[in-house]
Amino acid sequence: MNVLGIETSCDETAAAVYNEQGLRSNVVASQSIHVQYGGVVPELASREHIRLISPIVKKSLDDANLALEQLDGIAVTYGPGLVGSLLVGLNFAKALAFANAIPFVGINHIEGHIFANLIDNNNLDPPFICLIISGGHTQLVLIEEFGKYQTLGKTRDDAAGEAFDKVAKMLDIGYPGGPLIDRLARGANNKFISFPRPMLNENNYDFSFSGIKTAVLYYIRKLEASEIQIQKNDIAASFQAALVEVLISKTIAAAVAHGVNTIALAGGVASNMYLREHIEKQAAQMNLKLYIPLLAYCTDNAAMIARTGFYYLNHHITSPLSLSPKPSLKLNTV
Ligand code: KG4
Ligand code: ZN
Q1: Per residue in 158-197, pLDDT tens?
Q2: pLDDT band with cut points at 50, 70 and 90 for residue 332
Q3: Measured between alpha carbons, how far is 112 from 131 in angstroms, rounded to an integer?
Q4: Hey, whose CA ends up nearest to atom 16 of ligand 1?
Q5: What is the pLDDT of residues 253-300, one digit of tens each?
Q6: What rounded mean pLDDT belongs to the chain?
Q7: What is the pLDDT of residues 230-260, one digit of tens each?
Q8: Are β-strands 262-266 and 289-291 bridged in parallel, bridged antiparallel, or unpaired?
Q9: Strands of the 73-79 sheet, one edge to the other
Q10: CB of residue 272 inside a 6 A radius of ligand 1
Q11: Which residue, 55, 30, 32, 34, is CA-closest to 43?
């Protein structure tokens, strides 16, 4: 079954093909137009999607060596995300499916991030705990079966990726901030400043990152510009260590409390090297199996959408062509 996946929920225009042999193609165009504004400009994102969607989908079919007629299904993100961006991918997918009489399924972007763990291996079986950490979402989820998710906790303010992006802005190092802080922090002193670890020892699985962010802001405010330049690697490393400690601690605690021996990461922040290294060590110490998607499948991509679509279409689940974008779509909860 050849499934085309399309993803346009934010500022990546992406298409990919997945079948039982695995991933056949994976094309992502990250829109660079937003860099000059230090964040995604929704109207510009929609226009870029319109410009890019056709050539990106064509390239994904060419790379997979497939003609349109050889597709057995089309999967597309229908939420959550920016409504104008979602509309472009969703309408493109619906038109393609209708005109060629191909089965069609709408995919929840957050669920797609979870399925990124299944692109290169089929051994991840529920139950497992998944920490979903992206630019817009931070959620700790118990997956009892695919399609049904129990949210154990979520952020009460900023998403993890958002905190990275905001601290990067304070340090004036560019956008998107996550990968830049990750790089800046390598080899730096993460004990330079002891930033707060909000909600670390509370008996729940919620997160709060605005306190760490504000602590960084207050610290930076006291410095001269030249001091910020000298200290920025250590500030980045200290911030990252504080945030990652909370993420890992709550994920492992959730696994232990629910008697689950497998944990997984998902979303853009899962590409963070410090997090990957440390959670690997701690999961091993606790005898927990750990799954982390390959770097290319952590940040937004269509491979994860094609993979999720492959799962649903194999279970004969499709969507009506009347499906509309859902900017605030949540995970299906039990
Ligand atoms: O999943 P994603 O690509 O898009 C959303 O669905 O939001 O996540 C993007 C977020 C951004 O906030 C970005 O700064 C963050 O993921 N990110 C990282 C890293 N790479 C991307 N954060 C920390 N370390 C990274 N290496
Ligand atoms: Zn995402």
Answers
A1: 999 999 999 999 999 998 899 999 999 999 999 999 999 9
A2: confident
A3: 13
A4: 268
A5: 999 999 999 999 999 999 999 999 999 999 999 999 999 999 999 999
A6: 97
A7: 999 999 999 999 999 999 999 999 999 999 9
A8: parallel
A9: 22-30, 12-19, 3-7, 73-79, 104-108
A10: yes
A11: 34
Task: Establish whether residue 161 lines the binding site of ligand 1, counting it when its CB lies within 6 angstroms of any ligand atom.
Answer: yes
Residues 6+ away with beta carbon under 8 Å from 125: 262
Probe ligand 1: pick from 7, 12, 133, 134, max atoms within 8 Å of CB? 134
Q: Is 136 in the pocket of ligand 1 (CB under 6 A)?
A: yes
**Nearest in space to 151 (alpha carbons), one of 136, 162, 135, 138:** 138
User: Per-residue pLDDT averaged across 53-60, rounded?
Assistant: 98
Residue 210, classified by CB atoms within 10 Å of its CB into exposed (0-12), middle (13-18) or buried (19+), is: middle
The CB of 84 under 6 Å from ligand 1? The reply is no
CB of residue 111 inside a 6 A radius of ligand 1: no
299 CA closest ligand 1 atom index: 3
